[in-house]
From TrEMBL:
GO terms for cellular component: plasma membrane. Mg(2+) 2 binds at D98, D101, D223. This is 3'(2'),5'-bisphosphate nucleotidase CysQ. It comes from Magnetospirillum gryphiswaldense (strain DSM 6361 / JCM 21280 / NBRC 15271 / MSR-1). NCBIfam families: bisphos_cysQ. GO terms for biological process: 3'-phosphoadenosine 5'-phosphosulfate metabolic process; phosphatidylinositol phosphate biosynthetic process; sulfate assimilation. It comes from the Bacteria. One of its GO terms (molecular function) is 3'(2'),5'-bisphosphate nucleotidase activity. It is found in: Cell inner membrane. PANTHER family: 3'(2'),5'-BISPHOSPHATE NUCLEOTIDASE 1. It is an enzyme of class 3 (hydrolase). Mg(2+) 1 binds at E79, D98, L100, D101, D223. It is a peripheral membrane protein.
Length: 264
């Protein structure tokens, strides 16, 4: 187990020592999720078109004690805690946790959901772990290094240069904006659209199996932070449509529309 670290850890030179414990924690949360996934489970709604299941809260209960022990001075913003009104004051260094990103995919039982644990340090996604428990694939990134781990082992990953023709554009399975997507595609000769759920879209760009993820529609910071960190570590970026880096610590932790891609 990594030793607890001080609130100044967000300004440390490396975040890599935290990864082994966080990866184990994501897998532990994934096992809890898969226990629920194998059952007939109830679905409730926090708001219009915003489902939640027992797996969300149970997975979050696995993750939060670990983060509090590892970094007791760093606040944690977690989706289900936030839904209950428990949102800490944050500065430029804080955790963002989505215990089950892609609840709609979980409910549909298509396997495309993830556990997301991300650290924002000095306002930037500095460390991320994304685990897809139904696929048993994990992505992690920090300090300019990123990995994918699956049944074939652990491999270093990097973004690819988007091809001039035939770029792969990743679109959400559950949140569609057809007109705006088509306008984006019109600027990419021969582009191919592929659908993916949850944070898998960021991770596919990070591993070089996708090129662009244009997002039109609402997301929260806990939806994006972990996979954004993986993408940054793999040589990518997430920018708003006025070409500014996607920022964190915004009011209500709401994101504007954005584009994820390899750095030009």
């Amino acid at each position: 187990m990594a030793a607890p670290v001080s609130g100044g850890y967000g300004r440390a030179m490396t975040h890599l020592p935290l990864l082994p414990r966080l990866e184990k924690t994501a897998r532990d949360a994934g096992r809890v999720i898969m226990d629920i996934y194998a059952q007939d489970f109830a679905v409730h709604f926090k708001g219009e078109n915003d489902p939640v299941t027992a797996a969300d809260s149970l997975a979050e209960a696995v993750i939060l004690p670990v983060l509090r022990a590892l970094t007791p001075a760093i606040p944690i913003v977690a989706e289900e805690e936030a839904a209950a009104g428990r949102i800490p004051d944050v500065g430029d260094t804080f955790w963002l946790v989505d215990p089950l990103d892609g609840t709609k995919e979980f409910v549909k039982k298509n396997g495309e959901f993830t556990v997301n644990i991300g650290l924002i340090a000095n306002g930037v996604p500095a460390l991320g772990v994304v685990y897809a428990p139904a696929l048993d694939v994990l992505w992690a990134g920090a300090d300019g290094q990123a990995w994918r781990q699956d049944a074939q082992g652990r491999q270093t990953i990097t973004c690819r240069k988007a091809p001039a023709h035939g770029a792969i554009v990743l679109d959400s399975r559950s949140h569609r904006a057809a007109d705006r997507l088509q306008a984006f595609l019109d600027g990419l000769p021969g582009a191919v659209v592929e659908n993916a759920g949850s944070s898998l879209k960021f991770c596919r760009i990070a591993e070089g199996s996708g090129d662009y993820y244009p997002r039109f529609g609402p997301t929260c910071e806990w939806d994006t932070a972990a996979a954004h960190a993986v993408l940054l570590a793999a040589g990518g970026e997430v920018v708003t449509w006025d070409d500014r880096p996607l920022a964190y610590g915004k009011p209500k932790f709401l994101n504007p529309d954005f584009l994820a891609r390899a750095k030009p």
